[in-house]
Design brief:
CATH class: Alpha Beta
Number of strands: 11
Number of helices: 1
CATH topology: ADP-ribosylation fold
Oligomer: single chain
Shape: globular
C-alpha cells in the first residue's frame, strides 16, 4: 500500500496527542495483504518514518513508502475488502507521542502501531 497525499506544500508529520484508533486489513493468518508482513496479538510495531522519507510522486502529490499503514475508519477499510475476499478488518492503535499523517482517502501512516487481539471486527 502506497500512501499518497495531495498538497501544493510539503506535508508535515504530526505528533499524536492521544491514542488514535485505526483499522487494518489482514488475512485470516494475520498477514498484511500487500507485504505479507505477519502481525501478532498485543505487539508493538515500529517504522523509521521521518520527514525525509516523503518524496514527490508527481507535482502536488507526495508519497511515503517507509511507514506503517492503516485506515481511519472501518468504512474505508471495508471499501477495499472486495479485492481481498480472504481478509478481516481488525482494530489497532497509534499511541500518544507517535508520528502520524493522514490523507484525504482516510488512510493514515505512523511510526508506531500497536495491535490488539486481532479479532475480526467486520
Amino acid at each position: 500500500m502506497c500512501f499518497i497525499i495531495y498538497s501544493q506544500r510539503k506535508p508535515q508529520l504530526k505528533i499524536a496527542e492521544k491514542k488514535i484508533i485505526v483499522y487494518k486489513r489482514l488475512t485470516r493468518n494475520n498477514l498484511s495483504p500487500y507485504q505479507d508482513y505477519l502481525y501478532e496479538r498485543f505487539s508493538v510495531y515500529t517504522s523509521d518514518i521521518q520527514q525525509t522519507n516523503l518524496s514527490i510522486f508527481y507535482p502536488g502529490r507526495y508519497q511515503y513508502d517507509v511507514a506503517l499503514h492503516a485506515y481511519t475508519t472501518v468504512t474505508r477499510a471495508h471499501k477495499e475488502k472486495s479485492y481481498w475476499n480472504y481478509e478481516k478488518i481488525v482494530e489497532m492503535y497509534i499511541p500518544a507521542g507517535a508520528f502520524y499523517m493522514t490523507n484525504s482517502h482516510q488512510e493514515i501512516i505512523t511510526n508506531i502501531l500497536i495491535t490488539t487481539d486481532l479479532k475480526k471486527i467486520t
